[in-house]
Amino acid sequence: LRELVSRLHQRGVQVFLVSGGFQSIVEHVALQLNIPTANVFANRLKFYFNGEYAGFDETQPTAESGGKGKVITHLKEQFHFKKVVMIGDGATDMEACPPADCFIGFGGNVIRKQVKEKAKWYITHFDELLKELEE
């Protein structure tokens, strides 16, 4: 993944992380991949002043059904992207296409039968995408 993101950056492609996970964790991954934290869309945890867990920020688009698609629509409107490719391993990733123009199913961590069967392009290792970038 690190090599894929690096190659995309070399080509001037903006990379975003859109996740149903928690912002604090996803931002750590983004930093490891040299993805600006402004390009991270994920759920935010809330805490009371005394440090107790208070839930999650329900105003984040990723906190609701169809939220990943809403993020992609926002990005297309904000940056006027002509093409957006969504790569993911879950049904909520696949459901974001459209508005994404293309969905690539990923089974490198876990193979989800529904995603593998419905994705037009399904990979299990990012080397497969790196080879495509070389062509």
Notable traits:
135 residues, single chain, 21% strand, two-stranded parallel sheet, HAD-like_sf, 3-stranded parallel sheet, alpha/beta, Rossmann fold, serine biosynthesis, L-phosphoserine phosphatase activity, EC 3.1.3.3
- Using the coordinates shown, work out and report the CATH topology of the domain at 64-126: Rossmann fold
CATH superfamily of the domain at 64-126: HAD superfamily/HAD-like
CATH class membership of the domain at 64-126? Alpha Beta
User: What is the average per-residue confidence, as pLDDT, rounded to a whole number?
Assistant: 84
Low-confidence regions: none
Taking the sheet with the most strands, its summary is: 3 strands, parallel
CATH architecture of the domain at 64-126: 3-Layer(aba) Sandwich
Structural class: alpha/beta
Fraction of helical residues: 25-40%
Number of strands: 7
